[in-house]
Every structure is written in structure tokens, then in C-alpha cells.
Design the sequence.
């Protein structure tokens, strides 16, 4: 990751995000009920939840960092470590496995020179295995950021990766 | 009673009990992990599985978790069923998948619940052949060692630390087989109850770091029942000794007092016993003005000569010495020359306390009762910092609100998660009125900030609402007046209201106000209870003995030829200049266990025992007289203060002390001399007590190295010490079975090596010990006792423009003289601070972190400023200056010293 | 022509109808009708329709609603929660409904909430369903604008707020009681019963959790009546069902068919049978937590009782086909990896047993299995079953393993005896 990006990650939440979080918290039955939404907002802006941001959110929701991190580390979709600019969620569940999911994984690993769970050298992609994406009739399937892709084969994967160059 | 059948035999239990509890009570060895009598059931570990049958015809049954099963009338269960047995063994096998099997180097080894349960289930052969997951450990501060790989994920630690004790810096992280129990980041555990993790954790994840530094196996230590000496609550402890050193302190269950839990001051504050500033031999000031070692005989003769030759002898008692030692001094110098060794203010407060408690009009609750209160009013006390175990009890009382809701929904109290989910944070009302924020505020319905005088006025006003005959308060500030009604309503609506205050409120009117509230509750037909806390382990015992006498300043007011200071650093009780002036023409004899300003000033110093080298009796703030016993038999010259006093007295020809050769004789003498203590001999069995003709073994059967332990010094097998003051043998020889409840040297039962064996000693799980909880209450309310309201209502506090009203902000670590000598406690002590309201700080032109100066106790003090926005104007809270706390509260001038520490 | 009340309003282009479009095809009529009925009458109708929950457990929906305190009984705060977590591997039916007919779900929610007198409803959607979340949120806003959601709906005096919540992601969140913890912003740990959620659920208040498909069935039932609904079915339980097929079939997909349609009809007619070169070894009838069905039982009707009779369960009714080119041990390893990863970590057998099972299967697949491994697997199947663990995740994990040990015994033995995977060549293959 370049220095510029690291700076970006260490910015404080900022008034807008804080306001957004405060608003959900106000509408929630109880402040802590807003914590997952809040962490996701942070993640949308900063791609992952850094320790500094975690502490800030915790304070906003009247939680301690320990309490919030206990929740954050429980869930799959809250990233507590830096991820690349694009997150590839590759389904590793049964229907995709039957349809060649392992080959898709091997192909991606080879193209990106990473192992599952890792981020590419250039910080462009992080490859994460994910539970069944509910796209089984188009297995193998994956998500890149917020978009779902199915019927993956080598050519299609290369094509998708190209779009992010 | 509910009748149920286990493996064909009938048993009974209390209606609504869960099956695990019922089986343990019935004497079965049913293994478990996640259940804890104080924490309830959550069904996580699956260790307590049994078979449950639908009817008599059901021969198949189904597995059920005993801890989650309410026993129903006539229900049939099996523990020995092969499937249930195999499943329980399987649970251990799973727990062992990732367990490091590092028992040989684990501090828990030999008293590990996981070891016990493993043996109990019969799992012995490892079938898992893959790699284990490993964790990184955290540095959790000076008290607790962390070894996460040993974790079996029973969730007890979080449930205690977070759910029970209210700690918020410790939690569970991650999921599946990567769950991690610890802090968010490395760092000292903040809760003052962190030490309980050591006993709550069924394996060696959380161990006692101080113990680890001089570790020996549980079976290799002599144990003695003891009483905590670090505040006035009288928590029961077990002290462990080996090779003359105090190795550790663990909790000793007392159903009426501390139950399963201690605070960290009590558990970790023992370091002073082994500390470098112990005095091992008598010291006398020579002609050159320097102290030098002399022999015990010499010391006794010098002391005797002084007693004989001195015209007036003054005795200064000690709130941290045993009743027996205080009594010895009192008897020796005469009641009229015996003074409370406390500050003038504290002696007035203690006298007031005795007056209130002695009236018989008010019920003093045990901690167990406090825990069951259904409305609590705290006036002027920061419990978490002064009597932490009481704060923990209040926390449970407040949580009781959820049990009421749960009961209405037919959810039993032990269904922990269900109760928490249903009731959320339903709380019984707690009102805290203190000058600064406390750690109980998070659960308080109202946390009021006021100066002591206003807190007193608030209390008086509440009483006046409860009973119109109680003196009324005129022109209460509007903000307080609004709350008075709320508080009074809540107390009236309660069935077991509780008022808490104490000496540390620092103000007699606050104590009087709290008494008035309790009295007014009684007048309105409520069974109100009043808990008045005292600062030290025998403050109340001393006060009860000293009827009428004053504190240190009174003692020094008239000149005396000889002043005897009993286990007391008098420089913590009055200004040094006052003491010096008074002592100019007196000879000072000091008896104490450790060196300090007083022993350094003394002309003759007699090395006293610490609580770990003697037996004796202490009276807790509940008025409970409790006996502590001796684990360490020192080879140095230390002896009990009463023995020194007795020896010197005898040598000087005093008749009173002729018989002072055993503790029992002291107790009898005391009981005979002071009617108030007439029941003292019943507190614990006498030294002549035997079971089956034997003394009680104080070392476990497996104690090892007895003959080798001294080999470095001598190859002769040393003769074991003999305890003349207790029914304990000092070795593993002797009786090992059930003993009277005051005499547990350790908890052990066949198959139960860990502290969990306590289940085998309770008359009822989580209830009183078999034969009753130890201790005798000296002060009971009398139904028809007369009472009079206190009528001196103070003026409201008026801030001054030039001076601040400085008062003590107590601190759990550092305020207590003895524990503050322990290295680990020192690590938890923070620098001295002065707390001010933000506007006051602005007025002075200072900010947080800056140093300020003020004069306290005749000395210029330099303190770091801490802004406390919640504090009322005109107040200055002083923390971390325990040695001059005697001079507070008082008005001080504050001057910025300019330098910014940050 | 088969009637398809669940999918009838789905457009050929897959774009959801907006509120006007939905109304044009008869949408929100059932809601209007329901608001004029009593809650008791609605519950009665649902009970008569024999609608059983489509989330997997198949609990009678009417009975579940009935267990909530009556209108005039406290506590008055109750919740209706839509379980749109759909993380059961092999299941993709709820996503179709969420993305393509969100208004029908919302209509079902309004009726359900009215029936149990819940003023608040949560739709708990798995976080990866980005499109569904977007479309739902939009539909809720549209419904609010029409006055179908909000204060005093259509002058009925009944008010309802609907929140759409995106999950932080964990399979266990789909377990109804763990879902409460997730919504409360806690770790999604399941809760013990009793108390039932109808007594103490979300924030300790009476709560009902229903699957997306279940609630989508509700508007048609109310509109056209229980008898009509019962008539759609080929089974004792009413209605239609979204059956799906994935794997090496000719036409993987989803179809709304009469409840109790035979498995072979679904596989060979609707999904078109196996692709050339592939044979069907076995299927998981309703997601990862169901036991294998082998071809000799393919005539089974896909309803709760019939599938149970042959030792499996209907689950989500979304079928995963295992063909002969994939190693059955590999497939089991894949499943158990999923379950081990998704265990919440609360109870011992699941937390520490499943990873062990996964490792044994990995070893066997890699040719490193030992004879005693089979015994260990059987041991786990019996001790991670219902009642042994805290919730149904682990028993679900044992369903395919238990049946796999039975049906693929010889494959297990071959792996162990030959010290290699016979399917080694296809391990990382695309086909
Ligand atoms: C581990 C586990 C995961 C589950 N996941 C889901 C799910 O994703 N969606 C769902 O509707 N039900 C799921 N269920 C079933 C729910 O617990 C519950 O029975 C269901 O949502 C009730 O809705 P219904 O009565 O409409 O079927 C799951 C159950 C378990 C044990
Ligand atoms: S079976 Fe146990 S560990 Fe597994 S998900 Fe359920 S409660 Fe959690
Ligand atoms: S003690 Fe019963 S499940 Fe843990």
C-alpha cells in the first residue's frame, strides 16, 4: 500500500460519518444495536476497521473497544485488517465446489499471485473465501466488491479481473 | 421439596433447582465447567450431560444438560447411563483437542478443575492427531498471568468479569475454535476483581502472577483459614505457606460474607508479609541515638523496667491488630489510658458508629444480605475504592431486578442468559450520593454529586419523608430536593431497603443522616438495614473495646512517660509536629511487623507478627468476630503483640497477664473482662479441639519434601512446629475429613482438588457452609430497642472563593497501609492527584495534568491536577496521599506550580 | 397450468415491480383484506392453510403466530423478524424473492405483523445480498409513501415500522435465537429454550422469526383462502414451494412447484437431468444440513414428512447434486469445513468436534486416513446430534456426514486402503 493510502486510513472518522453513526444509533432500540451498521459504514469509507476507528465508533456508541471488538471479530464481513482496493469474495461452499470452485480459486491465486486470505502486492485485490453466495444455479460464483458474478471459468475470471485494471 | 430419581434412587432438592445443583447437593460427582453457582447456567460446555427419561416406561431416554434442566417432581434421570458417560468423556476429549497438556509447568496443576473432570470422566487416551491451534498471550498487568492455549472456552471468565463484576475492558473475541478471552489490547486489567479469574477459570489460563513468582503446588503448602486484613469487611481467605514464606491468598468461601469472591487488594496485597521491611528482631535505641538489635530477653526486661518505672503509661491501640493484642495493651495500661490509634476525626466517627450500631435499633446486614437488598442508598461512600467486595455485592443487589422479572415469566434465576435477555438491564434502584463519580454509577438510578454536608442534608431529608417525626431539612437546594422524593419512594417500595455509609464519608453528619434513614425506615414498618463501613480490618473491634476513649491526639494530649504504639504507624494518624511535640519527653515503644516512621522513631521496637504468623480475632464492619490462623511459624524473634506485652507485663509483675500464654486464654480473659465480647470463645473451636483424637492436618496428604526442605541448612529432620494456639497440626499428620466451618485449611474432597470442591462443604449449594458460616455477630438488632433520631442537621455547603474544601478521594490500591507495601500493588498505584471541577480549575488557571500545590497535614503537597467535570464547585478531591489523609477534610489554598507535567 | 402464487408477479426481465406495478397485478389487496380481519381470523386462516415454515425446520406458521401473547396481553411490544439470512450452502431461493418481488415480502410482513400485533419488523438480510438490500430498502420507502407502512396504516389504527438490517455475516445468524443477538448488536450466540421466542425473543420481548419464502406465501393465502392454498399442494402441507437444483444438471435453477413434487420430477424434468458425461451419485435435498438421498429414493415426494421418512429432511428444498466426477469425501470435507468455520464457538462439541471432523476428512481425502478414523467419524455423528449440542448447527453438520458414511462407505475405505484419493485428478478441475 502506498503512503498516501495509509494516511487515508488513519484519518479520523470525520463529522459526516460520525453524524451518520449517531443517527443510526438514535434510531436503534439501544445504542449498541447500531454497532454492526456503524462498523460497516466505517468499512465502506476506509475499507477496513482500524483500531483507531474502532475506538472512535465504540466511544460514539458508549461501548468500550473490547465490547465492540468482541462483536467485530465475530462476524465475517467486518474486516479488522487492511484489505485491497477490491475485495474478491469467492464462494467456497458445496455447490460451487461441485462446479469447479477449487479450480476457480486456483486460477485466481495464480493470476493474482496470492493465497486465499491475502492481498496482492499492488494492493489492488484481496481474495477471501466466502460462504455460499446464493448463486448456486450459476456456480462457481464470486463477488467483487458489491457485484455478483456467476458461471465462472478461466476466461470469464480473466475478463472480470481485466475490468479492474 | 421436589423429589427426583437418579439411577433408581430417590433424592430431594429445593423446588426450581437445576438438576446439576441438585445432583451435586445429593453428593454425586457430576462433572461441569461452565456452570458456577454464582453465575448460573448457560449450557455451553455440555459437560454435565445426563440421561432424562420421559416416564417409567421410557428405557431409552435422551441426553440433557443437567445444569439447564429444572428438576421436576418425580422426574427420572441417570448419570451412569453408558451413553451419558461416554458423552461426558467425549466432551473432555474435545476440550483436550487444543489443550497444551502442559500440566507439569502449569500453575493450576494439582488443583485444576480440568484435571479433576478429566479423571472423573475417565477420558485418558488421546485420539486427536492433528496440530493444535495456538494463541498469543497478553500482558494483563501485575496480578494476572495469561496463557490462552490452556483455554477450554467455558466462558466463565467473561461471565464473571463482564456480567457479574461489571468490568468492560475484557471480553471474548473471534468465533468457532478461535474464540479468544482477554483484553482488546495488552494492558492491566482494570477491574478490582480481576483476581477472581484465577479461581473462576477451571484451568490455567488466568493464574496468580504473584504466586507464579514463588510457585509451589497446592499440595505442597500449609494452609490456614484467615481473614483479609485490607479493609473492614472481613472477607474470609486461605493463606498458603511453604518454607516460611506466604505464597498466596485464595478465597475461603463464607456464605454470609464474601461467598466465592475477593477483591484484588485482598488477594494480592500479602507481599508485605514476605517484604524486605519486616522487623525480625527487637531494636533498642542506644546511647548514640541509633537503633540496634537486642535479644528478646533483653527487650522484655527493658520493656518491663519501663513499665515499672513510668508514672503514666499510654497505650495506643490499633485498628489492624487483633482483638487479643488490643485487649492485652488495654489491660496492661488500664482502660483509661488506652486510646484508639486513629485520627481524631476517625475516632469521633468510630464512636458515632458504635453508638448507632449499639443502639440495637438498626439491623446490620451481612454481605449476603446486602446482595439481596432490593433498594440501595449509598451516602458519601465510594465503595469500589474502599470496600470493593461490598461494591460487588451491591452490583448483584441491583441486578436482582432482573430476577423479579424473570420469576414473573417463570424463568428460574439460574437460567443466566435467559434472565439477561428477558430483563435486559432491569435494575433494582440504587442511589449513589458522592462528591465524585464512582464505579457503581453505571448501574445507579441516580448518581448525585454533592459536598459531604449536602449529602448529609439529602439523607436527613429522605428520612424526614419516610417518617414525619424525623427532623426535617429546610431549604435544600432545588436539584437535591427533587431527588429526595424519588429516593424515599424507592426505599418505601422496597422490601429489603439498604442504606450504606461509613467512616470514609469523612463526616459525622453523613453517618448520622444514614442512620436516620435506616431508623425512619424502621419507623415506617420496613426492615431497613444499615451498612456502615470502617477502614481497617479491626476498626470496629477496636472501637467496641475502647468505649469512650479518643484517638491519637487525645492519647498524646497529656504527657506520658511511656507511650506504647501497638501495630500502628502513628504518623498516618496525626501531624508529625503534633506527635513530635508530644513525644519529646516520652519513651516510645513500638510493636509492629514492618519498619515505618513510627518504628524508626521508637526507642524500643518489638517485632510483631503479621496476620500470617499468628492467630487472633478480628471484628468486621458487620460486627462479625472471626478467627484467623497461622500458616507461618517463623524462626525469628517475631511474636504476637499480646505475647510481647504479656511477657513484659509478667516481668514487671503485672497480675493481669499471668495467664497470657495461649490465644485461648487471651480470648477467655477478654470475654470475661468485656461483656460485649462474652461470646468470643464461640467464634472458633479452642486449641484443644480434636477430631477423632487428632489435630486437624494443615498440610495436604501429598505434601512433599518435608525432610529435604531444610537440607540446604541442616540434614537433620527438623521437628515440626507446634501450634499452641490452634487445633491444627502444623503438618500433614492429623485429621483430614470434615471439620468445623471456621477451620478449613484448604478445600479438598476426594476427586475434587480444585476450589470447586467447595460444593462438598456447603449445606446447600451456594448457601451456608455445613455447620453454619464462620464468625459470630456481636451486634444484633433488638426488636424493641429504643431509638432517637440524630437532629444536628448541617448547614449546606457554601463554596469559598479563596479556598477549597479538600477531602479524601479513596483509592483501592495504595490507601491501605499494609497492602501498599506489596510490589504488585505498588505497580497499580498512581501518583497523587487533586481533583477539581472544570470551572474551578479555570478559575485557578490550571488544566488537567498540571501540578498544583496545597498544604495538607502541615506539609506542602505537590499534586497533579485532574479535572472532574461532575464535581460540585468549591471541592478539591485528594487521592494518593494516604499518609496525610488524617488531616482531611479541610479547607485548603491551591496554588498552581506552573510546570505542565505532560 | 400450475398456479405460482410466489413467483406470479416476477417479471421476465427479473426487475422488481415498483409499488404501482405490484398493485396493478393485485398487490396489497391481501393486506387491505387482512387489516379488516381480526388477528385471530388471520392466524386461523394461516393455520387452516397448513403453511409450514420454509426456513428448514418446517414449523407450522399459524401455530408460531398463535403462541405470541394475544392482542390485549402484555408485553405489548413484540417483533416480527424476517429471516433473510440465507447462508445454507446450496440455497438460493430467498434471494430470488428478495430481489424480484420485494413488495410481496413486505405485504406478507405487514399481514404477519398485524396478526401478532407487532409494531416493529426487522428484515435481517445477509450482508452479501447487496442487490436485495437495495431493492428491499427502496420497496419499504415506496410502501411507506403509500401509507402501507408507518403510522395508522390505511386508517386501521395499526402502525408498523420496518427496518432492513444487513448482517455482519455468519451462518449462525440464521438460527432464529442467534439472530436476536445479532440484531441487538452482539455476538450471534444462540439462546437456550425455554423461554420460547414467542415469550422472550428480541430484547426479551415476544418475537416471531419467519423465513422470507414463508412470509411471501402469506398474501396469497389471505387473498384467496386456505382451501385454495391447500389445493395447490401434492402433500398434506399446503401450497407451493421454491425448489432449486444446482450441480451438473442441464438446467440448474429454481421452480415454484406444488408442495410435495417428487424429487425425480424436479431433477429430471425441471432441471433437465444430468449433463452429458455426468451421473448423479446422490443429492442433498435441502442444503448442507440435510442427509444425502441416493437415486433409489428419488421417487420421494419433496415434503416434510416424506423426506423425513427416508432419513433425510426437506431443509430449504434447494437440491445439490453430487455427480460421479467429484469425490464424495471431498464434498463432505467441503461441507464440514463450512460448518467448522461457521460454528459460533459457544458449545464444546460443535466448536471443537467439527474442526476435528474436518481434519479427519481432509486427511482421508489426502490419502492419510487411518482405519480408526471411520470410528471417530461415527463417534462424532452420534455425539454431535440433536440434544448433544446447544443448537441445531452441529446436528445439521452431521446429517450429510452420517448418511455419507453409510452411502459412501466403500469410497472411504478405498481412500484409506489405497492411501490416495481416487478422484485426485479432478480435484482442482473445472469440470
Ligand atoms: C444454524 C442454522 C441456520 C439457519 N439459517 C436459516 C436461514 O438462513 N434462513 C432461515 O429462514 N432459517 C434459517 N434457520 C432456521 C431458523 O432457525 C428458523 O427455524 C426459521 O427462520 C423459521 O422460519 P420459518 O418458520 O418461516 O421456517 C437456520 C437454523 C439453524 C439451526
Ligand atoms: S452447536 Fe454450539 S457452538 Fe455450534 S453453533 Fe450451535 S451453539 Fe454454537
Ligand atoms: S455445566 Fe452444564 S453445560 Fe456446562
Sequence:
Amino acid at each position: 500500500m502506498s503512503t498516501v493510502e495509509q494516511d487515508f486510513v488513519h484519518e479520523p472518522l470525520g463529522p459526516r460519518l460520525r453524524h451518520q453513526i449517531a443517527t443510526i444509533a438514535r434510531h436503534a432500540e439501544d445504542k449498541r444495536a447500531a454497532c454492526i451498521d456503524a462498523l460497516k459504514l466505517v468499512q465502506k469509507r476506509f475499507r477496513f476497521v482500524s483500531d483507531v476507528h474502532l475506538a472512535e465508533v465504540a466511544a460514539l456508541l458508549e461501548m468500550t473497544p473490547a465490547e465492540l471488538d468482541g462483536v467485530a471479530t465475530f462476524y465475517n464481513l467486518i474486516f479488522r485488517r487492511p484489505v485491497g482496493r477490491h475485495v474478491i469474495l469467492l464462494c467456497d461452499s458445496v455447490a460451487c465446489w461441485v462446479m469447479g470452485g477449487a479450480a476457480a480459486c486456483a486460477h485466481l491465486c495464480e493470476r493474482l499471485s496470492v493465497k486465499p486470505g491475502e492481498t496482492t502486492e499492488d494492493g489492488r485485490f484481496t481474495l477471501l473465501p466466502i460462504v455460499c453466495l446464493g448463486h448456486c444455479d450459476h456456480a462457481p460464483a464470486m463477488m467483487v466488491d458489491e457485484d455478483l458474478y456467476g458461471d465462472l471459468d478461466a476466461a470469464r475470471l480473466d475478463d472480470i479481473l481485466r475490468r479492474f485494471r | 421439596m421436589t423429589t427426583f430419581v437418579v439411577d433408581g434412587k430417590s433424592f430431594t432438592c429445593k423446588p426450581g433447582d437445576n438438576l446439576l445443583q441438585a445432583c451435586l447437593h445429593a453428593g454425586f460427582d457430576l462433572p461441569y465447567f461452565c456452570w458456577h453457582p454464582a453465575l448460573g447456567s448457560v449450557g455451553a460446555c455440555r459437560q454435565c450431560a445426563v440421561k432424562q427419561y420421559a416416564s417409567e416406561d421410557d428405557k431409552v431416554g435422551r441426553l440433557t444438560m443437567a445444569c439447564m434442566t429444572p428438576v421436576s417432581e418425580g422426574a427420572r434421570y441417570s448419570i451412569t447411563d453408558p451413553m451419558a458417560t461416554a458423552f461426558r468423556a467425549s466432551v473432555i476429549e474435545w476440550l483436550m483437542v487444543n489443550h497444551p497438556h502442559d500440566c507439569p509447568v502449569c500453575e493450576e496443576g494439582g488443583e485444576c478443575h480440568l484435571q479433576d473432570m478429566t479423571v472423573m470422566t475417565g477420558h485418558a487416551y488421546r485420539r486427536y492427531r492433528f496440530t493444535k491451534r495456538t494463541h498469543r498471550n497478553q500482558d494483563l498487568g501485575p496480578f494476572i498471568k495469561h496463557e490462552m492455549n490452556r483455554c477450554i472456552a467455558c466462558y466463565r471468565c467473561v461471565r464473571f468479569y463482564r456480567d457479574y463484576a461489571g468490568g468492560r475492558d475484557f471480553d471474548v473475541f473471534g468465533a468457532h475454535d478461535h474464540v479468544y478471552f482477554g483484553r482488546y489490547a495488552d494492558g492491566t486489567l482494570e477491574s478490582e476483581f480481576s483476581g477472581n479469574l484465577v479461581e473462576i477459570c477451571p484451568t490455567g489460563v488466568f493464574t496468580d502472577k504473584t504466586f507464579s513468582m514463588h510457585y509451589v503446588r497446592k499440595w505442597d503448602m500449609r494452609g490456614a483459614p484467615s481473614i483479609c486484613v485490607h479493609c473492614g469487611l472481613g472477607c474470609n481467605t486461605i493463606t498458603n505457606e511453604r518454607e516460611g514464606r506466604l505464597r498466596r491468598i485464595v478465597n475461603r468461601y463464607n456464605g454470609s460474607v464474601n461467598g466465592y469472591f475477593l477483591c484484588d487488594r485482598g488477594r494480592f496485597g500479602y507481599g508485605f508479609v514476605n517484604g524486605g521491611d519486616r522487623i525480625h528482631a527487637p531494636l533498642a535505641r542506644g546511647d548514640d541515638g541509633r537503633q540496634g538489635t537486642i535479644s528478646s530477653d533483653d527487650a522484655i526486661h527493658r520493656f518491663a523496667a519501663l513499665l515499672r518505672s513510668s508514672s503514666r503509661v499510654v497505650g495506643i491501640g490499633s485498628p489492624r491488630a487483633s482483638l487479643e493484642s488490643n485487649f492485652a495493651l488495654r489491660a496492661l495500661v488500664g482502660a483509661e489510658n488506652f486510646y484508639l490509634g486513629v485520627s481524631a476525626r476517625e475516632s469521633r466517627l468510630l464512636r458515632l458508629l458504635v453508638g448507632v450500631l449499639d443502639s440495637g435499633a438498626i439491623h446490620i446486614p451481612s454481605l449476603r444480605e446486602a446482595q439481596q437488598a432490593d433498594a440501595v442508598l449509598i451516602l458519601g461512600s465510594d465503595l469500589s475504592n474502599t470496600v470493593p467486595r461490598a461494591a460487588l455485592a451491591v452490583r448483584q443487589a441491583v441486578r436482582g431486578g432482573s430476577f423479579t422479572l424473570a420469576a414473573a415469566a417463570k424463568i428460574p434465576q439460574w437460567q443466566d442468559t435467559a434472565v439477561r435477555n428477558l430483563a435486559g438491564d432491569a435494575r433494582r434502584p440504587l442511589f449513589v450520593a458522592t462528591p465524585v463519580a464512582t464505579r457503581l454509577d453505571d448501574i445507579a438510578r441516580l448518581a448525585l454529586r454533592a459536598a459531604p454536608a449536602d449529602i448529609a442534608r439529602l439523607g436527613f431529608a429522605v428520612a424526614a419523608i419516610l417518617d414525619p417525626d424525623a427532623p426535617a431539612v429546610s431549604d435544600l437546594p432545588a436539584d437535591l430536593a427533587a431527588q429526595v422524593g424519588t429516593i424515599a419512594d424507592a426505599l418505601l417500595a422496597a422490601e429489603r431497603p439498604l442504606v450504606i455509609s461509613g467512616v470514609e464519608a469523612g463526616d459525622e453528619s453523613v453517618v448520622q443522616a444514614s442512620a436516620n434513614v435506616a431508623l425512619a425506615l424502621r419507623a415506617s414498618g420496613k426492615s431497613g438495614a444499615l451498612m456502615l463501613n470502617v477502614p481497617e480490618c479491626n476498626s470496629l473491634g477496636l472501637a467496641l473495646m475502647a468505649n469512650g476513649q479518643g484517638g491519637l491526639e487525645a492519647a498524646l494530649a497529656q504527657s506520658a512517660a511511656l507511650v506504647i504504639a501497638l501495630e500502628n504507624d502513628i504518623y498516618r494518624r496525626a501531624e508529625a509536629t503534633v506527635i513530635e511535640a508530644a513525644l519529646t519527653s516520652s519513651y516510645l515503644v513500638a510493636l509492629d511487623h514492618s519498619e515505618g516512621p513510627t518504628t524508626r522513631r521508637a526507642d524500643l521496637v518489638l517485632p510483631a507478627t503479621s496476620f500470617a504468623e499468628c492467630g487472633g480475632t478480628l471484628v468486621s464492619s458487620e460486627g462479625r468476630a472471626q478467627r484467623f490462623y497461622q500458616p507461618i511459624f517463623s524462626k525469628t524473634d517475631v511474636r504476637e503483640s499480646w505475647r510481647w506485652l504479656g511477657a513484659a507485663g509478667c516481668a514487671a509483675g503485672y497480675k493481669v497477664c499471668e495467664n497470657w500464654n495461649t490465644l485461648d486464654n487471651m480470648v477467655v480473659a477478654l470475654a470475661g473482662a468485656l461483656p460485649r465480647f462474652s461470646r468470643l470463645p464461640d467464634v472458633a473451636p479452642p486449641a484443644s479441639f480434636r477430631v477423632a483424637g487428632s489435630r486437624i492436618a494443615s498440610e495436604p496428604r501429598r505434601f512433599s519434601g518435608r525432610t529435604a526442605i531444610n537440607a540446604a541448612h541442616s540434614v537433620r529432620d527438623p521437628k515440626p512446629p507446634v501450634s499452641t494456639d490452634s487445633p491444627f497440626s502444623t503438618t500433614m499428620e492429623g485429621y483430614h475429613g470434615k471439620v468445623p466451618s471456621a477451620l478449613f485449611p484448604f478445600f479438598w474432597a476426594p476427586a475434587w482438588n480444585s476450589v470447586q470442591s467447595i460444593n462438598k462443604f456447603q449445606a446447600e449449594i451456594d448457601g451456608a457452609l455445613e455447620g453454619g458460616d464462620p464468625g459470630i455477630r456481636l451486634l444484633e438488632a433488638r426488636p424493641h430497642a429504643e431509638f432517637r433520631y440524630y437532629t444536628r442537621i448541617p448547614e449546606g455547603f457554601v463554596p469559598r472563593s479563596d479556598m477549597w474544601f479538600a477531602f479524601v478521594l479513596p483509592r483501592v490500591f495504595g490507601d491501605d497501609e499494609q497492602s501498599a507495601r506489596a510490589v504488585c500493588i505498588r505497580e497499580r498505584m498512581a501518583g497523587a492527584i487533586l481533583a477539581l471541577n472544570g470551572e474551578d480549575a479555570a478559575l485557578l488557571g490550571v488544566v488537567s495534568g498540571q501540578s498544583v500545590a496545597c498544604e495538607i497535614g502541615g506539609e506542602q503537597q505537590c499534586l497533579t491536577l485532574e479535572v472532574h467535570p461532575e464535581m460540585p464547585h468549591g471541592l478539591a478531591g485528594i487521592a494518593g496521599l494516604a499518609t496525610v489523609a488524617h488531616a482531611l477534610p479541610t479547607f485548603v489554598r491551591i496554588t498552581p506550580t506552573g510546570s505542565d507535567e505532560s | 397450468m400450475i398456479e405460482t402464487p410466489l413467483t406470479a408477479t416476477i417479471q421476465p426481465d427479473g426487475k422488481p415491480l415498483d409499488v404501482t406495478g405490484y398493485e396493478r397485478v393485485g398487490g396489497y389487496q391481501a393486506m387491505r383484506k387482512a387489516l379488516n380481519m381480526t388477528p385471530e381470523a388471520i392466524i386461523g386462516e394461516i393455520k387452516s392453510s397448513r403453511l409450514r415454515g420454509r426456513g428448514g425446520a418446517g414449523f407450522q406458521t399459524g401455530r408460531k403466530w398463535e403462541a405470541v401473547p394475544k392482542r390485549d396481553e402484555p408485553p405489548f411490544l413484540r417483533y416480527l423478524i424476517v429471516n433473510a439470512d440465507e447462508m445454507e450452502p446450496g440455497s438460493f431461493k430467498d434471494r430470488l424473492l428478495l430481489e424480484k418481488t420485494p413488495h410481496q415480502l413486505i405485504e406478507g410482513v405487514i399481514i404477519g405483523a398485524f396478526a401478532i400485533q407487532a409494531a416493529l419488523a426487522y428484515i435481517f438480510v445477509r450482508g452479501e445480498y447487496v442487490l436485495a438490500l437495495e431493492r428491499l430498502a427502496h420497496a419499504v420507502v415506496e410502501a411507506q409513501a403509500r401509507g402501507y407502512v408507518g403510522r395508522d396504516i390505511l386508517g386501521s389504527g395499526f402502525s408498523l415500522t420496518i427496518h432492513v438490517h444487513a448482517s455482519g455475516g455468519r451462518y449462525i445468524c440464521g438460527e432464529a435465537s442467534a439472530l436476536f443477538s445479532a440484531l441487538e448488536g452482539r455476538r450471534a450466540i444462540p439462546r437456550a429454550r425455554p423461554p420460547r421466542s414467542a415469550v422472550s425473543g428480541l430484547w426479551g420481548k415476544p418475537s416471531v422469526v419467519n423465513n422470507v419464502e414463508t412470509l411471501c406465501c402469506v398474501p396469497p393465502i389471505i387473498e384467496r383462502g386456505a382451501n385454495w392454498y391447500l389445493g395447490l399442494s401434492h402433500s398434506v402441507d399446503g401450497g407451493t414451494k421454491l425448489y432449486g437444483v444446482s450441480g451438473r444438471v442441464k438446467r440448474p435453477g429454481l421452480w415454484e412447484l406444488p408442495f410435495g413434487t417428487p424429487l425425480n420430477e424436479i431433477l429430471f424434468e425441471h432441471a433437465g437431468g444430468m449433463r452429458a458425461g455426468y451421473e448423479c451419485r446422490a443429492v442433498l435435498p435441502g442444503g448442507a444440513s440435510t442427509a444425502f438421498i441416493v437415486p433409489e429414493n428419488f421417487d420421494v415426494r419433496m415434503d416434510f414428512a416424506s423426506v423425513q421418512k427416508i432419513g433425510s429432511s426437506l431443509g430449504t428444498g434447494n437440491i445439490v447434486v453430487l455427480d460421479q466426477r467429484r469425490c464424495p469425501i471431498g464434498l463432505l470435507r467441503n461441507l464440514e469445513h463450512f460448518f467448522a468455520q461457521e460454528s459460533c464457538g459457544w458449545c464444546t462439541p460443535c466448536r471443537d468436534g467439527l474442526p476435528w471432523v474436518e481434519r479427519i476428512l481432509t486427511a482421508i481425502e489426502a490419502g492419510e486416513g487411518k482405519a480408526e478414523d471411520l470410528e471417530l467419524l461415527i463417534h462424532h455423528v452420534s455425539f454431535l446430534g440433536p440434544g448433544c449440542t446447544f443448537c441445531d448447527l452441529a446436528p445439521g453438520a452431521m446429517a450429510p456426514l452420517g448418511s455419507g458414511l453409510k452411502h459412501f462407505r466403500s469410497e472411504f475405505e478405498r481412500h484409506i486402503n489405497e492411501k490416495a484419493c481416487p478422484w485426485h485428478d479432478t480435484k482442482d478441475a473445472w469440470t
Observations:
- Chain B touches chain A at residues 168-175, 180, 183-185 (CB under 8 Å).
- Residues 501 and 511 of chain B are 6 Å apart (CA to CA).
- The pocket of iron/sulfur cluster (ligand 2) is lined by residues C 172, 190, 343-347, 350-351, 389-391, 393-394 (CB under 6 Å).
- The longest helix of chain B spans residues 388-408.
